[in-house]
Protein 1
Amino acid sequence: MSLRTMLGKSLGGTGQFVLGLAILAALLAGLHLAAPTPTALTPADGDAPASSGQAAASTGGTSPYRDKLADYGVCRGTDPACYNDWDLPRDDDGVVRVLVFTATGSSRHAHLGPLLPAGMNPPLTSAHVAQNAVVRWGQENGFEVDWTEDVRQLDAPAKLAPYDAVVFLSNSRTMLDDASQTALLQYVRSGGGFVAIHNTLGAMYHWPWFQGLLGGANFYDHGPHRDGQIVTTDRRDASTRDLPPRWDFRDEWYNLEPFPTGVRFVAEVDTATIGNHTGFNGHPGHAGDHPVSWCQYYDGGRAWVTTLGHDSAAWTEDSALPGAGSFEKHVVGGILSAAGARPFCR
Ligand SMILES: [Zn+2]
C-alpha cells in the first residue's frame, strides 16, 4: 500500500488528503528543526584542529580528520590536577599489582590465543603469547600480574581496588556488562591506572566515557600489516625514556576516528616509512601526523594507550621481530607509570 493510498484511506477525500500531506510536511519540518546538535561528546568529523583547550603536545602537521577536544564531562588532560590522589592502601604496600583483562566481544587476535576458562588466573598455554609476555615482563620488572577474561572478576569496585593498574589487552567490541562498567568507572575515579593495548581501541564503541578514557579516540581501520619506523616524540616519559629516537617495528598502524585529543603523544609512526594506504574502511590515513601511543589523566585516574601490538612476534620471548625489545620497554614503562610506580605522562 502506497503512502498516498494509506493517507487517502485514513483521511478520505482529496481535500483531506492534501491536508494530510500538509500535516506530514509540517511534522517533517519539525523533526528537522528538532534534530540534535553536536555536543562535546560527539566530536564533529573534519573540523579544524581545536585552537584552545587542546592539551595535546601535537607533533605538528595537519590531519583531515582532526577532531575538536571533547571533555566527556570529566577532568582530563595532561594536568596532574585531574588526578585523584586518595592515598589508598594499594599505593603504600610496596607491591605493584596488575590485572590483565583479555575478554573479546567479537574478533580475537592471534596473540591472545584460544578463549580462556572462567575465573582468575586460568592455565595459560604457549598460544597465549600476549598474556604470557605480560606475566614474564612482570617477573623481570618486579610487578605482580593476574589475568582473566571473565567479566565476573570485574563486577564490583572492590575486586579492582587492589590493583595498581588494569591492562585492557586487545579487547573487542562489547565485552563489559553494566556491573563491570561501573566497577571500572569507580576504579578509575579512585585514582586507578588504566592501560589500553591495540584492539582495545575498538572496544565499547557505544560508551562515551570509555572512548574518553582511550584519549577521545577509537580504532577506525588500518592498511596492510607492514614494516615502519616509529619516532619517539617524547623521551621524558617512563614509556619512552629508554627507547631510541627512532625504532623499526611492524604493525597495522591503526587509523583513528575520532583523532585523540587532550593527550600527550609519546610516539608516532613516520608515515613516510609505511606508504600511503587507505584503510580497509576508507580512512585516508594520518599523513605526516600519525600517533601510536599517548597518555592522559582522566576522571581521577591515569590512562596510557598504545595502538601497537598486533604482531604475535612482538610478544614472544627472544623475538627476532625488529623493535620487539623497544616494544617491551614501551609497554612495561606504560604499565609501571599508569600504576604510579614511575613518573607518569611527562
Ligand atoms: Zn591487530
Protein 2
Amino acid sequence: MTIVCPACKKENTGDMVCSRCGCDITPLAEIISAAENVLNHGIAALKRKEGKTALACAKRSWALKNSIQAAQLGFFASLMINDSVERTRVWHRRIKPNSQQFSSAL
Ligand SMILES: [Zn+2]
C-alpha cells in the first residue's frame, strides 16, 4: 500500500513512518485499510444482490476514503435498489467528476 505523507507529500510504501520527514502515517494506513475492508463487504453484498447493504458499505467506504471503487459500488448499488436519479447521479459524478455529459443522460 502506498501512502502519501500529509506533511511532505512523499509517497511511502511499507513503512509506517515517512522516510523523508519522519511523520507517523499509521493512522492513515488504518483508515485506508478500514475503507478497503468495508468496500470488500459491499462488493460481496452487491454480488449477493443485497443492494441496500452494498449502498451502506459504499457510503461508509466513501466517508473514510474518496475512492473510485467506493463511487462505483455506490453507483451500481443505487441502480440495483432503484434509488432516485439524483442520488444515482451523485455517485456517477464521484466516479468521473468532469463527466457532465453522461451524468445528464441518466
Ligand atoms: Zn513526510
Protein 3
Amino acid sequence: MDAIAAAQVLSEIGYLLRQDPEEKFRAKAFSAAAWSLAVERPDLAVLHARNGLTSLEGVGAGIAKVLAEAIETGGSRYLDRLREQVNQPARDDESAIDLTRYQGDVHAHSNWSDGRATMLEMARGAEAMGYHYLGVTDHSPRIKVVNGLNADRLLAQSREMAEVQAQVPHVALLQGIEVDILEDGTLDLPDMVLELLDVVIASPHVKLRQEPAAMTERMLRAVSHPHVDVIGHPTGRRPGSREGASYDFEAVFKEAARHHVALEIDCDPARMDLSPEMARLALDCGCNFTLDADAHAPAELAYVPMGLWMARRAGIPQGRILNFLSLGELTDALH
Ligand SMILES: [Zn+2]
Ligand SMILES: [Zn+2]
C-alpha cells in the first residue's frame, strides 16, 4: 500500500472517529497523520521493514499499528469496525479514481484574504503537486474578519497574479472568488464583478441555522445565479463540532444540476463537506463535482489526496469531477 492509499485509510478513520465527541483528539491525531503521509509520501514498505513507522511525523505507536496492518494486508480491521459502528459499511460500488489524472485544485486561499501564504507560495505549492491549474479563490467582503476582497482589491490582485503567473508558468492561475451566499440567497459581490472572474465559488458561511424552508430558497437562488460555477462546502458542517445547514437537498441539488453548477467535496478534514452520503445523493440528482482542498497554505493542498476516499465512497465517476478536466475543458465548463 502506498502512502496516498494509507493516508486515505487514516483519513477515513479520523473522519469516522469525529462522529464520537469523546474521540475528538484521537480523530485529530489520525487526520494529522494522514495529512503528514499525503504531504511527505514516504516509502511505507521500506519504513515498515526497518520498524521505522513511528519516525513519521504524527505517527505514534497506535497509529503505527494501524499503518502496519494496512501495509501488510491492504486493509484495516479497526477501520472496518468503525464503519460498522457508525453504520457506514464499505460498499461494493465505490468508484475507481486515478489521482495521477487530477489536473488542479480550483479552491484555494492566499494572504489576500485569510490564507497564510502569498499567491506565489500557493502557486509553487500547486507546481510541486504537479497541478496544471490553481483557482485562487479568496473571500468576498462580507466576512470582515477575513479581509475579503471588493472590486478594487480584486483588480489589484489581478496585477499581482500576472506577476506570479510569469514566475510559475506551468500552473495556470485562475482568478476567482469564494463569494458569500447572503441570507436571502443573493451574492456578496455585484454581477459585473463576478462576470470578470475565471471561477466563482458561492459558499454558505453565516446563518447556517436558518430554518429549512428559508435555507432552501437561499440555496436555490444561489445555484440559479448565472455566474456561479461551484457551491463551496454546500452544508457548512464541521464534523464533530457543528451540524451543517438543513435544507431540501434534493431540490437544491437537482436545480444545481440543471444549471450546471458543480457541488464541492471540500477535503479539509475539519469540513469533509459534502459527506460521501450527501455526495451520493447529489450524484443521483445529476450533479457534477469539484474535489478541492480549500487550502489556506501550500501544505494543505495535500488534503485532496487524503480526502479522495470520499469521492470513491460516493461512487462518483472520475468524469463527473471537474478537477480531472484539462485546463481547456475546465475553462469551457466554467461559464
Ligand atoms: Zn468557505
Ligand atoms: Zn475557502
Protein 4
Amino acid sequence: MSSLALINEFLGQPPNASEHGYQIDHILEFAHWFMGALFIGWSAFFVFVLIRFRRSRHPKADHAGVRSGISTHLEFSVVLIEAVLLIGFAIPLWAKRVNEFPSTQDAILVHVVGQQFNWTFHMPGPDGQFGRREIGLVTNSNPLGIDSNDPAGKDDIVVLGELHVPVNRPVIIELSSKDVIHNFDLPHMRIAADAIPGSLIPMWFKPIKTGSYEVVCGQLCGLGHYGMKGMVVVDEPAEYQSWLKERAELAGTQNAPPPTQQPPGAPPVGPTPGTVPPPGAPKTENPAAKPAQSAPTPTGE
Ligand SMILES: [Cu+2]
C-alpha cells in the first residue's frame, strides 16, 4: 500500500499505524487521483475553449451552443464515480467506525479529557471500574476531580500527556473536555474527534505497529493551542503491563488525599446546586460514594 500511496505521502500524511487506517488511505488516495484527473481534464477543456472560441474566429455569439452529447456523458460518469465513492466506500466505512465498536472486554478503555492546553488520560486501573468524577473536586493535583471516597476510583490511573496502549488490541476512548472545544487527533491512527464540553464522544482504533505517536489538538482552542500535544505510545504487551503496573503503584500513593485536606477558604467541596454533571461522570450514582458525599466539609455549609 505505502509504495502506491504517492499522493498521500506527497501531502504529508504520516505512515498508518492502525488496523482500519489502510481503508481510509485507499479512499484518500483514490479520491486524490480522481480529483487530479478532473483538475487536469477541466483545465485542458478550459484552455481548449479559450482558443477554439476566441473572438477573432467567432465575432458573433452562437446562441444554440453545444450540439453533441459528450459533456452530458462525461458529467454523468463523474457523478457516478462520486456516488460509488460515497455510497460504496465512504459511508460503509464510516458506519463501521461508529456502529461496530469492539467488545469492551477485549479492549483498553480510556477516558480522554482535553483542557487548555493539554490532554489527560484516565484509565480504570486493576479493578476495571472508573472512579466517580466530580467537577468540584478538581484541583491542580487532581485534574479530573476523581472522588477519593469512591472505592472504584482508588486504583484509577491518571496520566498527563502520555498514554500507553498495547499493540494489536482495540482501544476505546471516551472523549470530553473541561473548557472549550478541542479535537483529539491521532493522525497515525487515522482518527480524530471533537472534544466537546458536556458531551461524551466515543471513538476507537486498533494500533498495529509499536512506536510513539503524536496526539495533536485539531481545533483552534486558544493561545496555547499550538502546544497542545500529547503522545500515544504503542507498546509490546509485556512493556505495557510493566507501565501499567508502575502507574498503578503510583496511583495507589497519589490518589490518597481526602477532600477534608482542603486549605481554608477553598471553594466548597461537593456538588453545588445546579451544577451540570462533569463530562465522564457515570450515568448512575455510585451507591458506595453516596454517604461520603454528605460528610461535613470545613466550610460547613
Ligand atoms: Cu485544544
